Amino acid sequence: MNPIAEKVVSGDIRAVARLIRDIDDGMPGVRDILKELYPHTGKAYVIGITGAPGVGKSTLVDQMLCHMRETGHTVGVLAVDPTSPFSGGAILGDRVRMQRHSLDEGVFIRSLATRGHFGGLTQSTRSAIDVLDAMGKDVIIVETVGVGQDEVDVVKSAHSTVIVVIPGMGDDIQAIKAGILEIGDIFVINKADREGTDKTLSDLRLMIEMDQKKYEGGRWKPPILKIQAVFDKGVTDLLDEIEKHKNYLLESLEGLQFRKSKARVREELTGMVKQRLIDLALEKIIDSGAFDTAVDAIVAGESDPYNACDNLVLSGLQIS
Ligand SMILES: Nc1nc2c(ncn2[C@@H]2O[C@H](COP(=O)(O)OP(=O)(O)OP(=O)(O)O)[C@@H](O)[C@H]2O)c(=O)[nH]1
Ligand SMILES: [Mg+2]
Asked: Does residue 44 sit in helix, strand or coil?
């Protein structure tokens, strides 16, 4: 076995940290290590926590960590933030908010900020989940800022997805409807100490109830919880609901293996093939002398990017 993979499986924190950083940086060597880790994955329970910036996701995760540690679960946390310009900003805030767990060996917190890797965020998050899974964490929590398709794709890797909103989001709730409602297994109204909580609750309930057909035949209907994360109110209710959802998944057809269901594997494999094709093709085309020649020709006014692109791609991939 590859020595790094061996260290990861034995739970070596430094090896895991380094590997996740290499995944985030898109280092080519990680693929071989991930290959060896794959047989050691599939045991962890993955929870996605998503919501707009500042709704209290990290505060909530921090409290969840406390309760999960009390019950003896080991937990890995991935804070995914594609929006911050460097891996400072919000992510630093996330780490600070969960800092009290930094000396606890049963907790491992890392951030991912993959930028500039085309289509890479979902893939690198999946890979990082696999790493934490292979290192033996019982539960993996993925915190993402729920704004775009990327984040929706990221939480698709979770068994249970928790959508966090705050009172008075009004129009934002409509925005949730557009994409995020479908992926929410549990809804949390955080900052329920604030005004407007009940209005938000009834708005959300209305939206969920609208689609009654979806819940026929005993299918999971997302509960809505009022929580005050900062005061640790309602957090254990959330853990109870996650447990219920887990049991539901276990009993329902797909079971917990649904991370490895045909549809997921297909989606995952499509993503990987795409990424690999792009990497290989870019390497081949951009590193070729023909690319530099084309750049010079465009600058000199002897060619244009449209023709140059056609020529480079077709000849680079040997398609005629
Ligand atoms: N009033 C109130 N404030 C809260 C509650 N929970 C969290 N906050 C505050 O909300 C602010 C943002 O909390 P975070 O946990 O950083 O929010 P986040 O969603 O992780 O933010 P990003 O990672 O930047 O998207 C902090 O100042 C928290 O103290 C709550 O229940 N009530
Ligand atoms: Mg946060």
From this structure: coil
Ligand 1: does its nearest atom lie under 6 Å from the Cβ of 229? yes
Torsion of CA 148, 154, 155, 158, to 10 degrees: 170
Check if 228 has its Cβ closer than 6 Å to any atom of ligand 1. Answer: yes
Amino acid at 160: S
Q: Is residue 58 in contact with ligand 1, taking CB distance under 6 Å?
A: yes
- The pair of structure tokens assigned to 51 is 């919501």
From CA 221, how far away is CA 212, in angstroms rounded? Answer: 9
Backbone angles phi, psi at 210, to 5 degrees: -55, -30
- Best of 49, 50, 55, 59 for a ligand 1 pocket test (most atoms within 8 Å of beta carbon): 59
Whether the CB of 20 sits within 6 Å of ligand 1: no
Give how far Cα 162 sits from Cα of 47, 92, 150, 240, Å: 7, 22, 16, 13
Rounded to the nearest 10 degrees, what angle do helices 57-70 and 89-97 cross at?
A: 30
User: What are 136's two structure tokens?
Assistant: 């033996």
The type of residue at 9 is V
Q: Which tens digits make up the pLDDT trace of 249-267? A: 888 866 556 556 677 788 7
Q: Which of 77, 109, 230, 232 to mutate to test the pocket of ligand 1 (most atoms within 8 A of CB)?
A: 230
Question: Among candidates 63, 192, 58, 77, which has minimal Cα distance to 139?
Answer: 77
> Would the CB of 166 count as within 6 Å of ligand 1?
no
Write the DSSP assignment of 47-85 as a string of letters. EEEEESTTSSHHHHHHHHHHHHHHTT--EEEEEE-SSSS
Express each pLDDT in 108-135 by its tens digit.
998 887 654 544 678 888 899 999 999 9
pTM, two decimal places? 0.85
The token duo for 163 is 């959508």
Query: Cα separations (Å) of 64 from 83, 218, 232, 268?
Result: 24, 28, 9, 29
Question: Distance (Å, rounded) from C-alpha 41 to C-alpha 269?
Answer: 16
Question: What letter does residue 300 receive in the DSSP assignment?
Answer: T
